[in-house]
Amino acid sequence: MALKAWINGDESAKEMLGRVLTERPFLLLPPFHRVPLRVGNVVEVVGPSHSAKTEILMQAAVSCILPKEWNGVHYGGLEHLVMFLDLDCRFDILRLAQLLKHRIVEANGSNSNVNWDENDVGVWEDIKKEPKIAYDEDLFSTSMRRFLYVRCYNSLEFLATLKTLCHRLQKEREAHGVSVHILMIDSIGAFYWVDRASTSLSLGGTNRKSLSLQSVSEIVVMEIQKLLLVHPMLVLATKPTILGDNYSTSGSKRKWSSQDSSDLRTVTSGSQKLSYREYMPPVWQSFVTHRILVRASDDDLANRRHQNYSIYLSEWSFPSLNFLDKLIVRDAGVFTVS
């Protein structure tokens, strides 16, 4: 009967969109807002160091762990869990708390342009005293408990985490009543160069099997694929890279060693060509469904020194949109500018 009702059923476009958005909500945050992402997609955010990759992940995490509504106030969150795998071992939990507090205070009618500093206790004391923009500590604690964090110091710990993650996600879903919506990996290439310098990764003991660089990537992809079958999620992974000769708009060049066997890839960014080295094994490259390139902008350098914010450029290379977004990072998060 249920199948027959589904076949014979009819719904308007508004009802269909409401159902789809409830089951698989969009992630309408810069720079992800250009492409409709769904659970099962694997999105790679690629860029050199200090290009706001982790900042982009944290903003997405805040939007995921916040509820849609709380005590009659609209926050626009997804109210789901986030699993954050920190391979870079430089995650700043205070920054995540800062972003979450900004979203809570902003939704309650405060001035979102306030530059909050973790040492500036007076600002938050004033916010707590103001009844119209009261800081909801219960909401903050409830949201932070939806953020699940694991730190891995090498590839073997990363593999062990992936193999046990299915059981943990099941326990977290039972405990919180909601599932994990986003799996974040920061950053997927953190151990690549260390593993490449080693001939093999020993699993311990003289009779144990050793893992090569290629087999590690194959196991990572296989474990994530198995995980997605049981726990459908959106996968967001950052990847550090070094951009090539045409990266800098100020004219500086970077030469590559002939010993580097990595693939040199070129994408067109407006009137400019950007080159970067793709070093991850093909098994991971074929696993990625979407890719975003981010980098610091050389535009308005003099103005940036006076404005207390950084400017970045993001572009979708897969699928190729041939469109640049200009982003700024402030205390309240990542914003697009014209």
Automatic annotation (TrEMBL):
GO MF annotation: an example: DNA binding
Task: Write the signal peptide boundaries.
Answer: none
Which residue range or ranges hold the RecA family profile domain?
A: 17-242
Q: Which PROSITE patterns match?
A: RECA_2 (PS50162)
One Gene Ontology CC term in the entry:
replication fork
Q: Which GO terms describe its biological process?
A: double-strand break repair via homologous recombination
Task: Output the superkingdom of the source species.
Answer: Eukaryota
Tell me the InterPro entries matching this sequence: P-loop_NTPase, RecA_ATP-bd, XRCC2
Q: What is this protein called?
A: RecA family profile 1 domain-containing protein
Please name the source species: Liquidambar formosana (Formosan gum)
